[in-house]
From TrEMBL, chain A:
Keyword Glycoprotein among UniProt keywords: no
UniProt-listed InterPro entries: ARR-like, CheY-like_superfamily, Sig_transdc_resp-reg_receiver
Assigned keywords, A-Z: Phosphoprotein, Transcription, Transcription regulation, Two-component regulatory system
Sequence ranges of Basic and acidic residues compositional bias: 158-177
Annotated protein name in UniProt: Response regulatory domain-containing protein
Domain Response regulatory: from-to ranges: 30-157
CDD domains recorded: REC_typeA_ARR
Bias type Low complexity, positions: 180-211
Length: 222, 156
């Protein structure tokens, strides 16, 4: 699977601005968040804004496609003129699921280079695999944390830096991160929130090691 | 100053008890991290939205279980939503009874207890836990308000 940073570099010539410059001159990611839960939309919006991202939230896959102009010829420019740099979508939604939305985006020549992240409250391996195979960059377990968003943002924006050719491993600076193989594609994106215990009362280091051993088991299975 | 210190202690102790008794979990802390000077009421706002959404879901659930022919997939969808939103604000006990609700309703082999009856019992549990956490959170916000009115600030 292509690393998002490389994809961004490959598909956008140097003189094309991928990120919107805010007046202060800093580059800001514009994220489109898709979730049918009104509570989750509020939380994800806040998570993204506090991480200095521009956010647009929509309640369904259908609305997301409308916003992205998939029905027309606009491409990744939303109706308000802002390019979308990342799509975060819930998996279980009535009507079009996040997986179906992912397929539509990756099936579109205009939109397929936009990284898509799936969020789900359910830790179902078959589901995770299916999404990653279809081209999702990451699969995040809900509830999404600030650290997830920060890591995601770093990962997406690094593609635009001078040293945009680095491997994914460099983004992981937290002490509870595990060292996985540094090989790029086709290994799936390594997210420590990819697999986590559903118990929310464990200390973060304890649940991180639970994640690590579960992830190792997942790899052995493959 | 003494009043402020007292209120601060009251707030800290009460909050601690909510975590200890499992009403709230780590996700609630996450929400508090999202609150700052630019968004000083974020937690109250998102929790209020959760209350509104929960009332809606509880109504939908009650209606769904009153039908002559119960659509269990619909019931499950509502419970799934409730599970999700309670998880998003850290309402751990509500989330747990939602999980139990879905498991219990799916059980095919409980003799003598009809599915809809089981679901009604589960709904009662969910309603109970929801009203408990609602009361707790409203009390929490009240103490915070008193603290701020007395000139104090919420300890982070």
């Amino acid at each position: 699977m292509a690393i998002a940073g490389e994809v961004l570099r490959r598909n956008f010539p140097e003189n094309v601005e991928v990120f919107d410059d805010s007046p202060s001159g800093s580059l800001e990611l514009h994220v489109l968040a898709v979730d049918d839960s009104v509570v989750d939309r509020m939380v994800i919006e806040r998570l993204l804004k506090i991480s200095s991202c521009k956010v647009t939230t929509v309640e369904s896959g259908t609305r997301a496609l409308q916003y992205l102009g998939l029905d027309g010829e606009k491409g990744p420019v939303g109706f308000d003129g802002l390019k979308v740099n990342l799509i975060m979508t819930d998996y279980s939604m009535p009507g079009m699921t996040g997986y179906e939305l992912l397929k539509k985006i990756k099936g579109s020549s205009v939109l397929r280079e936009i990284p898509v992240v799936i969020m789900s409250s359910e830790n179902v391996l078959a589901r995770i695999d299916r999404c990653l195979e279809e081209g999702a960059e990451e699969f995040l377990l809900k509830p999404v944390k600030l650290s997830d968003v920060r890591r995601l943002k770093d990962f997406i924006t690094r593609g635009e830096g001078k040293d945009g050719g680095e491997t994914r491993d460099h983004k992981r600076k937290r002490e509870d991160d595990y060292t996985s193989s540094s090989s790029p594609s086709p290994s799936p994106p390594s997210s420590s929130s990819l697999i986590s215990s559903s118990s929310s009362s464990t200390a973060s280091s304890a649940s991180s090691s639970a994640r690590l051993s579960k992830r190792a088991k997942l790899r052995k299975k493959d | 100053m003494d009043g402020v210190a007292q209120l601060q202690k009251q707030l800290v102790d009460f909050t601690d008890s909510l975590f200890q008794e499992g009403f709230l979990d780590e996700q609630f802390n996450q929400l508090q991290q999202l609150q700052d000077e630019s968004n000083p009421d974020f937690v109250v706002e998102v929790v209020s939205l959760f209350f509104e959404d929960s009332e809606r879901l509880l109504n939908e659930l009650a209606k769904a279980l009153e039908q002559k022919t119960i659509d269990f997939r619909k019931v499950d969808a509502h419970v799934h939503q409730f599970k999700g939103s309670s998880s998003s604000i850290g309402a751990q006990r509500v989330q747990k009874v939602c999980i139990a609700f879905r498991n219990y309703c799916e059980e095919q082999n409980i003799e003598g207890v009809k599915p809809w009856h089981r679901c009604l019992k589960c709904l009662q549990q969910v309603k109970l836990e929801y009203s408990l956490v609602k009361n707790k959170l409203e009390t929490l916000f009240k103490i915070e308000k008193q603290l701020i009115a007395a000139g104090g600030s919420i300890p982070t």
